[in-house]
DNA sequence: TTGTATGCGTTATCAG
DNA sequence: CTGATAACGCATACAA
C-alpha cells in the first residue's frame, strides 16, 4: 500500500489539508511544518495519486490520441510531435488504435470519454456522421490531424491534398514528362484519396495532357499497394515515364518492383512520393516527394488542444503549406 | 457537466447502489428497474468515470509504456503488439518517451507511478542502478523489452544479441566472405552494442579470420550512422566484401552511401541488417537481416504483465529465438 | 498559519 | 431485490 496524505498527516502530526498545501506548495505555512511534512513524505515514499487529484479537480491532465496504426513512419513522426509537446506542458498521452479502417473508432472514443481525457487528437481517420456526433458529444476540445470532415465544427490541421498532388504532378510535367501514372490512392477515400487523384488529373488537363484512366492504379498507402500498381503498369505495357504516388511507401513499392524488373529509377521511370516520411531519404535513389510537416502537425495540434483546454477558446482549422522536396527519383526529360 | 450515477438515481427514483449494480450488470435486481435505469442512463448520456472507479477499486486498468522514441519502425511494431493486446484485455495504454538516451527515464517512471498504472513495459532503454531502484519501488509488475539489466529481479524479453550477431556473420562467412566490416554498434552499450560486436568478432575468430579493429565502425542505430560508417570504409579504402550492421536503418545507410559512390550491393559489397523491421523488405535490394519478432515481443510482454497483474505471479525472463531472413543483399562468393 | 469538514463519482458492505 | 452509508485519496472553502 502506497502512502497517502493521511499517513503523512498522522506521522507528521498535522492535518491532511496542511500536507496537501505543502505537497502542492501553495504557500501559507511556516518553514518548519514544510520541512517536517516533506521529510515524512520522503520517508514514507509518498507519491501523489493523479487519479484522486483528477477526480476532485475535474481534469485529468491527459490527452487522448487515436490513430489507425503506429507502424508507419508517418504516424511515428506525428505521435512524437504530440508526445513531446504534451510532455512539455505536463500532460500525459493515452494512445489507442482506431483499427485498420477506423473499425474501432467508436470504442476508442468511448474509452477516451470514460478516461475523461481533457482533450482529444484524432489522426488520419475518416469520421462519419455517427462518429462525429459521438465526438462532439464528448464535450471536450479536439482536433483532427491529416483528416477532416464536411462539417464546420470539427477543427483540423492538414495540407491541401489537392494542391499538393497538383504541385507534384506539375513538377513532373515541368520536367517534360507527358505520360504520367498514379498509384496508391483510393478514389473512395474522400479525404486523402480523391483529392490527390483530382489534383493529378487537373494538373494534367491544365497542361493539355489527356487523362488516361488506365494510368490510375487505385490502392492503399502501403508498400504492397505500390508493388501491385507497378506490376499492373508492366502488364499493361503502359508507356509511362513517371509515376506519382499517394504515399512514400507506395513509391518504395513502385521502385522495388522496378528493381525486380530491371527498370531503372529514374532513368527509365521517374517517381514522386508523398509525405516526406523518414523512409523517403533512405530509399535508393532518394525519393523526391511532397512534404507534409508531420512532427510539426503533431506539435501544433497538441498545442491547439492544450490552449483550448486552458483558455476554453475555439480551435481554428488550419491548412498548412506543403512543399516539394527534390531528391533524385525524377529525371528531367529533354 | 457529465451525468453521474447520482443523477440517474435521482431521475430513476432508485439509489446509487442500484444504478451501480445495473451499470456493471452484477445481477440481483428485477427487470423493471434494470430497464428503467438503463433508459435514464441513455437519456442522460451517462458515461462512467473510469477515474472514480479506479480510485475505489485500486486499479486503473492501465498499462504504461516507456520507450526512447516512436519514430522508427522498430518501436512501431512493438507498440502495436502492446496496444493490440492490451486493448483485447480491456487495458488502456499510456505512452511516454524516455528521451533519446533515457534522459527522461526518471520523470517517466514517476509519471507512471502517479498515474497508478497497473503494469509497466519499458522498451529498449538501458537502466542504471538508481533507475532500477525506482522501478522496483513502484511495486507493480513490469517487464523490459529488448533490453535487460544485470540483476535477477528485472524480467525481460529479448533475443540473444550475441548469438544473433554470430548467426549473421557466420552466414556471411558461409558465403565465403573473409573481409567483413561491422557498423552501427556502440561498444559502450552493454545491452545491444557490445554483445553484437562480440558475436561478430567471435564468429570471425571461430573461422580463422583475424579481427581488424579498423573494420569496426562504431555508431548509433540510425541511418546516418550507416552512411558515416560507409564513408569511413571508403576513405580507408578498406577491402571489405561485406558489412554486418547493428540495425536495418544502419544497413540502409550503408546501401545509400554505396549507391552514391556507385558501389553495387550485393555485387561489390554484401550487407546484412538487424531487426527485420518494416524497412528491410522495402530496400533495394531487399535486405538480408536478423529477425527479431517485434510485434510478438510487444504482445508477449504485454500478456506477461497482464497475467502478473491479475494472478500476482512472477514474470520469468525469456530469451526468444532470432532468425535469419535471407533476401537479396548478400552475394555468394566463389 | 493551521485544522475541520465536505465533496469529487464510484464501489462495496451492510441492513432491511 | 434495494437502500443507506462508508470508504477511495485528494483539494478546498470556511473557521479558527
From TrEMBL, chains A, B:
UniProt organism field: Paenibacillus agilis
Tell me the superkingdom of the source.
Bacteria
Q: Which SUPFAM superfamilies does this entry report, sorted A to Z?
A: lambda repressor-like DNA-binding domains, Periplasmic binding protein-like I
Residue stretches making up the HTH lacI-type domain: 3-57
The protein's name: LacI family transcriptional regulator
Extract the Gene3D superfamilies matched here. Answer: 3.40.50.2300, lambda repressor-like DNA-binding domains
Q: Does the keyword Transcription regulation apply?
A: yes
Molecular function, one GO term: transcription cis-regulatory region binding
Under InterPro entries, the record lists: HTH_LacI, Lambda_DNA-bd_dom_sf, Peripla_BP/Lac1_sug-bd_dom, Peripla_BP_I
Q: One Pfam family from the UniProt entry?
A: LacI
Record keywords, A-Z: DNA-binding, Transcription, Transcription regulation
